Amino acid sequence: MIQVFHAVAAARAALGACVVTIGKYDGMHLGHQLILQQLQAEAARLQVPTLVILSEPQPEEFFAGNTAPARLNAFHDKVAFLDGFGIDAVYCLRFDHDTSRQLPEDFVLHTLIDGLGMKGIVVGEDFRFGHHRKGSTETLHHLSSLHGFSVSAVAPCLDKHERISSTLIRQCLHRGDCMRVSQCLGRPYSISGTVIAGKKLGRQLGFPTANVALLSNKLALSGVFVVQVEEGAVMRPGVASMGYNPTVSDSQQASLEVFLLDYDGDLYGKQLKVNFLHKLRDELKYPTLAELKQQMALDVQNTRLYFGAGQ
User: Fold this and answer.
1) Which of 29, 47, 81, 119 gets the most CB atoms within 10 Å of its CB?
2) Selecting from 3.40.50.620, 3.40.50.720, 1.10.10.60, 2.40.50.140, what CATH number does the domain 3-159 have?
3) Does a cis peptide bond (omega within 30 degrees of 0) precede residue 188?
4) Each residue of 260-284: pLDDT tens digit?
């Protein structure tokens, strides 16, 4: 079970020493996974635990606020992925005014070496850190020669001769290219959350939906999708609507509503993981609820066809 720390002293007391990587890790895509694999290899060589340092909020969110790009993964989803990957620990680095103004050398010496007991660091070749992003892999190599820690810089991962990045994944999600996203992630894009009470409109229309709580109102994707939904070890096919429900509401409150095929049960309070497999259509505003119901029936039919189940 992965350990999560919010204080340097607690991490040092529990781990003693470690090999670290640091970043946003938004998406946990194949490029991130290459870094994590190298992290594990270096930790095995030095016989110390692996530690991933995640910035919260992400730097763009701190500097740009509401104009920052939509986040791909909530913090808890990142931790869950790292746990499954076999990482030993996560340190949640609070990114604030003081953090943003810290010199690269001070961060390495005080936080990483003295604070966390870093014996090695693994980052991407383009890694930048510290005040005004002045720190780089060259900075790390220079400091490693003075303080005796190892540095590994991992080359970018390419897909179709294009560098895999969080930005590329956002672009693919925006245009509904779920297949390309899956190729870049090594798995379908997913969102997890707790099922909460909704307006129960879907039930009135004959399509009861599970309303999955979202942590942000800014969405990386929108529309109607074929999905697979995980509840623990159980996988169920379904169709999901991600967006702002324009037919029944003028608000800008985002929602994720999932209709499970051939399921009759109570999901309130359950934790679901929604895997997005294929985009059926954009979110549309229909003149009447009858037309919306007709479209929902067609969405379900197309979802069955996707899964090869027929009618």
Assistant:
1) 29
2) 3.40.50.620
3) no
4) 999 988 899 999 999 999 999 998 8
